[in-house]
Amino acid sequence: MLWSAPMKVLVVEDDPEIAAFVTHGLQRSGFEVDCAGNGEAGLKLALSAAYDLAVVDLMLPGRDGLSLIEEVRAAEVSTPVIVLSAKRSTADKVACLRRGADDYLSKPFDLAELLARVEALLRRSRPAGENEHLEAAGVVLDLVNRTVRRDGVRIELSPREFALLELLMRNQGRALSKYYLMERLWEYAFNPQTNLVDVLVCRLRNSLDRDHAVKLIQTLRGIGYVFRAS
Fold it and tell me: Is residue 84 a contact partner of residue 101, using CB atoms and an 8 Å limit?
């Protein structure tokens, strides 16, 4: 069975305002985000969970960013790392890159530049031959930039709506149960009293199908939901 969860990013930043700024920006771009406020907590997360990318502040309480990166690389974890730092000298940037970082962004920074660097690193780290798009029935999902188009028209989806559509398209023609969708999209067991899945499907339909004669998101009563063109 083919399935891909939203890309996960680890943010290690001790400044609450910057951490919230970065986290919110990444989430709006379709990423799942875990956040740590110090180096030890960041290292524990980096070594215990799989992340597609990490954004790490250089000056952290407890353990600094460089030490964190060195420990991660020593453990043979290849997660791409972008360093955030108020230090702007060439020597500081070179030191970070030589000790395991993949990119370096000086503070203050623009969110658009950070997101562009995130996308560039993810493109470079994507395994050769892996598709960057899903296409079916006129719908195109850009898995790198997290965008959706139907018949060439851009459709704005929330991160979880994007994740639901990706799940359905990767299993095109196969009905996915509410139990399965709940576990994949919310990562906890299905509760028959909740309508989370139904509400999410309704929102996705309003965005994807409302203005089209052909409805792609279909309900199979007593079974689940399926993506198909007929």
Answer: no
Each of the 230 residues of the chain gets a pLDDT tens digit; together they read: 333 456 789 999 999 999 999 998 888 777 889 999 999 999 999 999 889 899 999 999 989 999 999 999 999 998 999 999 988 788 888 989 999 999 999 999 998 889 888 888 877 766 544 567 889 999 999 987 889 999 999 999 988 899 899 889 988 888 888 887 887 777 555 566 678 889 999 999 999 999 999 999 999 888 889 998 76
Looking at residue 8, its amino acid is: K
Give me 112's structure tokens. Answer: 């658009």
Question: Roughly how many angstroms between the first and final C-alpha of the chain, as a whole number?
Answer: 22
Rounded CA separation 211/230 (Å): 16
Total-model pTM: 0.59
Orientation angle between helical segments 159-170 and 196-208, nearest 10 degrees: 80
DSSP 161: H
CA distance 82 to 85: 10
